[in-house]
Amino acid sequence: MAKVTLLSLKGEKVKDIKLNDEIFGIEPNEQTIYDAVRRKGASLRQGTHAVKDRSEVSGGGIKPWRQKGTGRARQGSIRAPHWYHGGVVFGPNTNRNYEKKQNRKESRLALKSALSYKLSTNSIFAIEKIEFKKASTKDFIKFLDTLKITGKTLVVVSELTDELILSSRNLSNVKVIESHEINTYDVLNYKNIVMTEEAVKMLEEELK
User: Fold this and answer.
1) For the chain, domain boundaries
2) 3-41+101-207 in CATH: which number?
3) For residue 196, which of 33, 62, 70, 73 sits 20 to 30 Å off, Cα-Cα?
4) Can you give the pTM of this predicted structure?
5) Per-residue pLDDT reduced to its tens digit, 26-85
6) Can you give the pLDDT at residue 201?
């Protein structure tokens, strides 16, 4: 059975807690992980890029020369695509939807796969609780140092507090979320996952 060491705020071992093998001990499914990451990346695209077609560029309201008798090719507008400053053909526009879909079963499998992978690489840390009497970035850094955690860290708690949010928001390599917000992209994007004991229970209850 999968298990992880539960630590105190001082970094001392409290006990070993058993984890649900169906969530933290499965064989990672690489395809669902790939699809979940692509879906997340697509959702982050703003879709604000666009170009002007021939109806949107300025000028070109009059026929440049008469249809026949000039010896030149017939032209209807100087803003046709082959003219300098003409409109763009089939260019990107804001009507394009980059959303990718993944059904709920696959999405949950991807998250379980990512969590199982992280546990297999000893990148998941469990802690009794995370409490700060006041908002202090210095105390948050000290907390991570006590656990001997370095690098990008995802902190998962059962409930966010103002002190926790204010203490961590100035750290670019730290993200604090509630257990129901956890997703495959964040699990893989961060080197370490720190979870409170209550957050582990809530996550297992949601994913079982």
Assistant:
1) 3-41+101-207, 46-97
2) 3.40.1370.10
3) 33
4) 0.80
5) 999 999 999 999 999 998 888 888 999 999 999 888 899 999 999 999 999 999 999 999
6) 92
